[in-house]
């Protein structure tokens, strides 16, 4: 069975995309799946969880090369996952390349075609998790067109939620139309909120969003999971705060951070279970 591609997106920055990608990756590995992470963000945050910054300064066989159709390398990360997790990193040099107009933008299906063609990906991985940049430029579009499923993380801050609406109303309909896949929206994941958040707040956000979805054409609505918001909420944890600024973070793999906090580990495992359940529900329908 070809790997399922899950693209984590929200064009708003700081909504938890990178954190969610890394955590979900580890939780799926812990459940016995092989996971390939693809860092589509030239900011390289996800890559820096696993690879030294000095190794990211000049990547010549990472995600951009993959999109260009030339040689790329899957780095096996985190020995404790026994090779079950790999990453195609993003390099810091890609920002300069973007400035110089060297990011190939002519083929929005670049990553999708490459995933389908590569035996090393199709043979070895069950899930591909794509982390995307907080803007809509070619790497984000590659991730959206490669996706079987889209996951949208958001905190409860107003701008983040407004960003989700924008994505759903103005961007996803176009992507759904142009994607060569039967793209589905797996749901919105509320992340980085305190445990004090009230059930009422969550219900009213859910209610308002469901109402908003009903105003959209059925062709868009039917691509959404029947419950747009995940039941699982990822709470705010001290050890996840500013994770991407932690010095030498690649030396303390995230799964060890998770192992030290039972509550966090269980929280993420519950999310992974819900992701699998939602995917199965969709697959059962086809
Ligand atoms: N569950 C969480 N608990 C604590 N901090 C979090 C949590 N999720 C995200 N953060 C923090 O919020 C900030 C933005 O998260 P990040 O994953 O980088 O978002 P994005 O990739 O969408 O820009 C980071 O500083 C991150 O450490
Ligand atoms: Mg990010």
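-> sequence recovered:
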């Amino acid at each position: 069975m070809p790997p399922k591609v899950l693209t984590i997106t929200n064009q708003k920055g700081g909504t938890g995309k990178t954190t969610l990608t890394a955590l979900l990756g580890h939780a799926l590995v812990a459940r016995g799946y092989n996971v390939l992470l693809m860092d589509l963000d030239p900011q390289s945050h996800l890559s820096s969880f696993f690879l030294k910054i000095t190794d990211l300064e000049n990547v010549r066989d990472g995600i951009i090369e993959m999109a260009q159709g030339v040689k790329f390398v899957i780095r096996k990360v985190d020995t404790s996952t026994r090779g079950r997790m790999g990453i195609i990193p993003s390099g810091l040099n890609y920002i300069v390349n973007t400035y110089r107009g060297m990011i190939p933008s002519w083929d929005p299906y670049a990553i999708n075609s490459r995933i389908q063609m590569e035996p090393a990906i199709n043979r070895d991985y069950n899930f591909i998790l794509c982390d995307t940049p907080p803007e809509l430029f070619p790497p984000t579009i590659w991730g959206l067109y490669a996706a079987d499923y889209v996951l949208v993380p958001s905190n409860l801050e107003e701008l983040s939620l407004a960003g989700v609406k924008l994505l759903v109303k103005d961007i996803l309909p176009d992507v759904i139309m142009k994607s060569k896949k039967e793209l589905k929206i797996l749901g919105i994941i509320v992340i980085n909120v305190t445990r004090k958040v009230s059930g009422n707040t969550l219900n009213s956000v859910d209610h308002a969003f469901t109402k908003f979805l009903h105003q959209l054409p059925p062709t868009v609505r039917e691509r959404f999971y029947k419950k747009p918001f995940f039941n699982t909420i990822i709470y705010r944890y001290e050890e996840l705060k500013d994770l991407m600024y932690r010095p030498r973070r690649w030396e303390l793999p995230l799964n060890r951070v998770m192992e030290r906090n039972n509550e966090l580990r269980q929280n993420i495992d519950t999310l992974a279970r819900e992701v699998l359940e939602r995917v199965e529900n969709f697959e059962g329908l086809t």
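The CA atoms of residues 213 and 221 lie 6 Å apart.
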